[in-house]
Amino acid sequence: QVQLVESGGGLVQPGGSLRLSCAASGFTFSSGVMSWYRQAPGKQRELVAGITSYKSTNYADSVKGRFTISRDNAKNTVYLQMNNLEPEDTAIYYCKLSSPAIGNYWGQGTQVTVSS
Questions:
Q1: Gap between the Cα atoms of 24 and 63, Å rounded
Q2: Rounded CA Rg of the chain
Q3: CB-hemisphere CA count at 13 Å for 101?
Q4: 14: CB partners within 8 A, 6+ apart
């Protein structure tokens, strides 16, 4: 059974940093594309960053230069390092697995709030 469990969210002041983690189980982690999405109140869920099994990455324009996605295949974990956070980054952040073999799965989400 595929499970994705996010952690690391919280309240941070503007300009601060957080690191989100997504611990995966139930599938061959190294073969899946892992992504972080976010959804702010009243807005659609949007892609933040993605990383392939070969560790090729892509980012939303709004987070380029501030966020870094990475993965540790030995620990079955994907990370999102978020620096210089802005109030506009406030959202629930979701981890997503995309696999041609087994389909798409989502984590339960972790809340990130950027406020002074």
A1: 24
A2: 13
A3: 9
A4: 85, 86, 87, 114, 115, 116
